[in-house]
Amino acid sequence: MKIKITGALAAFAVLMSAVPALASDYDPINTMSAVNMAIVSIHRIASSRDRVVLDAEYRNIIDNLSMGNIEADPEIKELYTELMAVIGSKTLREDESARVDARYRARDKSNLADRLPDARLLLGNPWGFIGSLFAGETALYFGAQMLFPPNRNDAADDELWRLERENIEEMASLQRRLLDSSWTLLRKYGLPDEYLLSSQDLDALNMAVSEGDAERGLRMFKALEPDFKMYAPFWYYYSAAASRAGDMTQAAECLDEFERVWRPVLRRDPFRAEVAKLRAAELSQAGAPKEAIAAQLEIVMGNSMRENWVNNLFAGATFYSIGETDRAIQCVSINTDFGVESEISGEVARSMKEGNLDVTLFLTYLGDMYKNGLGVPQDIARAIEMYIDPAEEGNPRAQMALGEIFETDAAARDEARAAAYYAKAAENGVITAAIRVGDMCRDGRGVGDRKLEDAYMWYYLALLQGERLGQARIDELEGRGLLNFRSVNAATGRRARDRANQIYETLRK
């Protein structure tokens, strides 16, 4: 099949032809790494028969080649030109891509929340908390290429993402061309046969990656070592399998092996970014020099696609932890500036600029997302779980949110807890909380009998902070409302005002 080269493909061909011959000490492993990347991409696309996987492979591998680091062999030029033509014509449209990205962002946020119960154990080491929260989260690419496409909502979605039979036949034809080219290059550079991956090898790797039993999965990776020893991504997956099985020594050795065999054949290598995230988190938790941590973070940013919001947030939070505030804000602001993610990143960037970023804020942001259904399905029980620790740590936003949930949500209603959290939020300066706990004291909800002096105190605290509704409520208690019925006497009012003034003075300090 003859491929017509136009537009971007022509530019690609021109660029490849313009690449000068590399030095005589050129490392041929670069060439075989590029070929193996292509072999793996086509295998994944054909195995999944899914346009989401195809799109991820095109963006992250096929259209991401670092041409300056690869010898301009005719086989490589023809190979990648044809790959770009065949695969590029089947990538997702902009609106389709936006749908997929939105679903993966929701998945990422849900996964983050799932890990929070264990991460809370690290609150004594706050930046260890940050590392545990974000280091293990991977990009959309990994969700797609591991053959777990986004949840399908209906038959139309199934049709949208499916590759047709003729597309699969094209993939099979490409796979044959890849094998022909790879054998030619293998002989040219005098490399051993085991440097070349086969379809059978990749089928076995997919089985190992997908294995649910941690111990069995680790044994499978051990058996695959001879077939993948020069394929860097294998060692990333092997490390993840060892971590799941609890063998942290093996996991660390696999990361070392990844760095030994890795070659810079992609402009932005998602595998390199993930390994650097793990390294940065380890160094941060170990209290390593900030220069060592910063070096890993720059690798993360240098190998992450702009839309990888988790990596941007991870790097920003960890830069902030080592005192690199300006760099931290730059990283996090990528998410908001380019419209990638704003619910968490916007608040984090604002807190960084104000100099008051606290790790419990991450829990609060996730609580907001689940309470209001922002980017994830609304889940009040999970929202409560997110808010509890920040509220107990004194976060007024979390305290106010819990008050609202316990007062108004039918399933979670607990007026005693609502009044208690409103009171804590009011003592921390939340004016609306002062009005609400005042109303509960006035009505005898969640506080036992009616407590009019307490109600007066909360209303007056709100008034001291400029809330005119506080004066209206006080007028009602003092008999200046529509019913003209006095509920508190002058002595009660004085005591309440004195108590409110004490809280207000504490707030002003």
Give an overview of the whole structure.
- The protein has a domain of 118 residues: Tetratricopeptide repeat domain (Serine Threonine Protein Phosphatase 5, Tetratricopeptide repeat, Alpha Horseshoe).
- It is elongated, with a radius of gyration of 29 Å.
- 70% of the residues lie in helices and 0% in strands.
- The chain has 509 residues and is mostly helical.
- The N terminus is likely disordered.
- The protein is built from 26 helices and no strands.
- 42% of the residues are buried.
Query: In which range does the helix fraction lie?
Result: 55-70%
Q: Strand pairing plus helix content: what structural class?
A: mainly alpha
Low-confidence stretches: 1-8, 11-20, 145-156
The percent range for strand residues is under 5%
Kindly, what is the distance between the CA atoms of the first and last residues, rounded to a whole number of angstroms? Answer: 77 Å
Could you say which overall geometry the principal axes of the C-alpha atoms support? elongated
Gyration radius, rounded: 29 Å
- Whole-number mean pLDDT: 84
Q: CATH architecture of one domain, please?
A: Alpha Horseshoe
What is the name of the CATH class of one domain? Mainly Alpha
Number of helices: 26
* CATH topology value of one domain: Serine Threonine Protein Phosphatase 5, Tetratricopeptide repeat
Question: What is the total tally of β strands?
Answer: 0
Query: For the report, how would you describe the main beta sheet?
Result: none
Going by CATH, the homologous superfamily of one domain would be Tetratricopeptide repeat domain
The helix/strand order is HHHHHHHHHHHHHHHHHHHHHHHHHH
